Amino acid sequence: MTAEVTTDIATGSGAYGPRPGAAPVGRMIAAQASLETKMLLRNGEQLLLTVIIPSLLLALFSTVDIVDTGAGRAVDFLTPGVLALAVMSTAFTGQAIATGFERRYGVLKRLGGSPLPRWALMTAKTLSVLATEVLQIALLTLIAFGLGWSPRGGPFPVLVLLVLGTAAFSGLGLLMAGTLRAEATLAAANLVFLLLLVGGGVVVPLDKFPDTAQSVLGLLPISALSDGLREVLRHGAAMPWGDVGILAGWAVLGLGAAARFFRWE
Fold this sequence. Notes:
This protein is mainly α. It has one domain (45-261). Helix content is 71%, strand content 3%. It has a two-stranded antiparallel sheet with strand order 1-2. Mean pLDDT is 87; it is low at 1-12.
């Protein structure tokens, strides 16, 4: 027998052990986050997007004079932008594609019928993204130091920018995955990745664009994240409040819209 039963003869009631029931929400979130992280790290396509492409861009553009990054060494300009690109590739592009196909294949529908609350599933996915980003940032930092990078500024504003950037991109990625078909999500997420790589201040300075375009591009989350990281790590600024405000606004809008419009089937 799988459970011991103690029966009260007088009442006919039974006490079952172990008692059936859902695990605490915190434990469920931790287990789901661990599973999500393992699945992401085992996916070759995701590793190409989240690790190999940012690493190659940093190494290539730092050693070959392809783009005019302005005064100073190229690696000092490129490293903050590539760190921002790594956040976008994991929190937005990778998560949108993976979640979109999970929705198509009915995985999310089954998870939605489990004791795991839907908000807890989104929390677990965000924690998985953060764990992956820690590995990305560690690797890119080692590569940048090997190329002669000399960062300035303190770690706290960098952490604030990275967390807000993750929240903003995660919300937008979940919104796309929860409202579009999987094939449309795949195409749109990759297209947005390429467009923001070029026009988000990652490898090409925003001042290379026309004035009108600069004012629009500067409001994008990738531009705010790369510019904010650059202000801290390259120029030693304290807290770039303007960029923090833009990222916070995108985070609220993205996560709020994802919670409101996300469809599980």
